[in-house]
Design goal:
Blueprint: E1 2-5, H1 8-17, E2 20-27, E3 30-37, E4 39-40, E5 44-49, H2 53-60, E6 63-73, E7 76-88, H3 91-105, E8 115-119, E9 126-128, E10 133-150
Antiparallel strand pairs: 1-10, 2-3, 2-6, 4-5, 5-10, 6-7, 7-10, 8-9, 9-10
């Protein structure tokens, strides 16, 4: 068994390979962690959310911790933790973020909380499966670290 630290290329590989991660911050005096579907472009995490506690948390405390892992089994895994800054996207930036997200997610089975392929030309916002407008956001990563365990 071997424990170790991921290098920059391995960290990027984990971030690009996965589609579910967790954002964490503080809201109402408590730590709040929630899973999100995401896409990574090499610098930033892009995601979407309807209005709720997740967006409220990120708006009020834009310094975000992001976590993702790749788990083959309990003896073979990789985990990445990154820190960055949340920003809500609008207009062309929102449309670009939404398109990155849709391109990454289109081959993956959809769910009720997934975005439809509808993009509003005026706002760049997506529409979720219930017809609610989803806010597109970006977390620009400033620091990344990763660990792994591997059984040879």
């Amino acid at each position: 068994m071997m424990l170790g630290t991921l290098n920059a290329n391995q960290i990027d590989h984990v971030l690009r390979s996965e589609v579910i991660g967790r954002v964490g911050s503080i809201t109402e005096g408590r730590v709040y962690i929630v899973p999100i579907s995401y896409v990574y472009d090499g610098d930033s995490i892009y995601g979407h959310s309807a209005d709720g506690m997740k967006l409220s948390m990120m708006r009020s405390h834009p310094q975000i911790c992001f976590e993702v892992e790749h788990i083959e089994d309990l003896a073979n895994w990789q985990s990445v933790i990154a820190w960055g800054t949340f920003e809500e996207l609008e207009g062309e930036e929102s449309a670009r973020g939404l398109q990155l997200f849709l391109d990454r997610m289109s081959p993956i089975r959809s769910s009720q909380t997934a975005l439809s392929s509808h993009i509003s030309a005026e706002s760049g916002h997506g529409i979720d499966a219930h017809g609610h407008i989803a806010t597109i956001f970006r977390i620009t990563l400033a620091q990344k670290t990763g660990r792994y365990e591997r059984q040879d």
